[in-house]
Design goal:
The protein is an alpha/beta fold. The protein is built from 9 helices and 7 strands. The radius of gyration is 17 Å and the shape is globular.
Length: 261
């Protein structure tokens, strides 16, 4: 298992850990590409009042070097590692963007089926533009978004390989329509979804949010009008002013602080 640790003060134990999985269609990307985003996140958590915020970003194996379930197994191993560091699962915020958010949702569904993790669910989940359902007719190109639905479906098939079924909810979390399963999978403090109104994954994300709300779970949503895929990450790199660059992260930190204390 590989990953990047960011710790505000290495001499003290963390009082909160963000466990993050990066996006990239399962076949691209690295936590190092997100380093500025992740460092800013930890800094903002410190500004919000946490004593020693920390973050672990998983470096999972990319397709074609490995396919499902390798990435899920590595995500689970990463969660075990984070849990061994902080001890208290309620102080863990799991999260990710795009395919990384898919792995986070898959992890939560997997934990819900594992009796050993009944009392080890994370405290909160922050999901940025999750790829909720890997292959879906609702995943359609939009005039604004840079993603292409046809290419994404190809990436999905390469990730699943010949042995895994794209109808399996652990592979493609949007396929889980069982309210009870989602209830057991929920972090104890709920979910926060951020996505753009113009992105390819918007319809499936809205459908999952609606389902989760049926369970009575706490679900917060930030659908940014006119924005594209993974806008909190994109704006950090593309915007001109500090306020614009950190807008998404500041929203995330504010909600984490309110929900996790």
């Amino acid at each position: 298992m590989k990953g990047v640790w960011i710790v505000y003060n290495e001499l003290e134990e963390p009082d909160i850990v963000v466990y993050y999985c990066h996006g990239g269609g399962f076949s691209m990307g690295s936590s190092y590409f997100y380093l500025e985003f992740l460092l800013a996140w930890v800094s903002l958590l410190k500004d919000a009042g946490y004593r020693n915020p920390s973050l672990f970003a998983l470096e999972y194996t990319l397709v074609p070097d490995a396919i499902y379930p390798t990435q899920l197994n590595q995500t689970l191993a990463g969660y075990k590692h984070v849990l061994s560091i902080i001890g208290d699962p309620s102080r863990i915020c799991v999260g990710g963007d795009s395919a990384g958010a898919t792995l986070t949702l898959s992890l939560l569904l997997h934990l819900a089926r594992s009796p050993d993790y009944e009392k080890k669910r994370p405290g909160f989940a922050t999901l940025i533009s999750p790829w909720v359902t890997l292959v879906s007719p609702k995943n359609r190109d939009t005039p604004s978004d840079y993603l292409n639905a046809e290419s994404l479906h190809l990436y999905a098939e390469q990730y699943a390989g010949s042995k895994a079924a794209l109808e399996d909810p652990i592979v493609s979390p949007g396929k889980c329509r069982k309210i009870g399963w989602w209830y057991r999978a929920s972090p104890c403090r709920g979910f926060f979804f951020l996505f753009g109104s113009e992105e390819v994954f918007g319809p499936e994300t809205r459908a999952l949010v609606a389902l989760l709300k049926e369970t009575g779970l706490h679900v917060e949503v930030r659908e940014e009008k006119g924005s594209i895929h993974a806008w909190p990450v994109a704006t950090l790199f593309l915007s001109d002013t500090k306020a614009e660059r950190q807008k998404g992260l500041e929203d995330i930190v504010k909600v984490i602080r309110h929900r996790m204390g």
